[in-house]
Amino acid sequence: MAAAGSAAVSGAGTPVAGPSGRDLFAEGLLEFLRPAVQQLDSHVHAVRESQVELREQIDNLATELCRINEDQKVALDLDPYVKKLLNARRRVVLVNNILQNAQERLRRLNHSVAKETARRRAMLDSGVYPPGSPSK
């Protein structure tokens, strides 16, 4: 039995071009992880959208509280609440930026994986292997 990574041999004893065990494992692992990466990407996108909506609602509420505070004849001190809302908005924006950066890194990683997979498939289809490849 041939070891993983060695070239396959036909019944006539001639080497048969084919992917190495390592290439098969890498491709299988990529195919296994692809749905999880895509699902994570869609969830991050949904969270970012909801955070944009939350930020808009916080802005609206802060504006409304300021307007109510100005219109009141009895002095209500709403400034601490407005400050808390603005602090919450700042945190939402910060988390949104972190998610955006993570999503961009995930997109670049997914693109690199797809590019490498396409390159390896093209090499396998053409029968051309890089120098020193165990699949020769």
From TrEMBL:
Stretches assigned to coiled coil: 85-119
Gene Ontology CC annotation, any one: synaptic vesicle membrane
InterPro entries: Snapin (IPR017246), Snapin/Pallidin/Snn1 (IPR028119)
Family: Belongs to the SNAPIN family.
Localization (cell): Cytoplasmic vesicle, Secretory vesicle, Synaptic vesicle membrane
A Pfam family matched in the record: Snapin_Pallidin
Protein name per the record: SNARE-associated protein Snapin
Annotated keywords: Coiled coil, Cytoplasm, Cytoplasmic vesicle, Membrane, Synapse
Role description: Component of the BLOC-1 complex, a complex that is required for normal biogenesis of lysosome-related organelles (LRO), such as platelet dense granules and melanosomes. In concert with the AP-3 complex, the BLOC-1 complex is required to target membrane protein cargos into vesicles assembled at cell bodies for delivery into neurites and nerve terminals. The BLOC-1 complex, in association with SNARE proteins, is also proposed to be involved in neurite extension. Plays a role in intracellular vesicle trafficking and synaptic vesicle recycling.
Superkingdom classification of source: Eukaryota
GO annotation (BP), single: lysosome organization
GO molecular function per UniProt: SNARE binding
Protein species of origin: Neotoma lepida (Desert woodrat)
